Amino acid sequence: MSVKKLLHTRMRVNDIEASVRFYENALGLTATRRHTSPRGAQLVFLATPNSEEEIELCQMPAGATPVQVQPDLMHLAFEVEDMAAFVTELEAKGFKLSDGPSPSGSGNRIAFIDAPEGYEVELIQRAH
Question: What is the mean pLDDT of residues 18-40?
Answer without folding.
Answer: 96
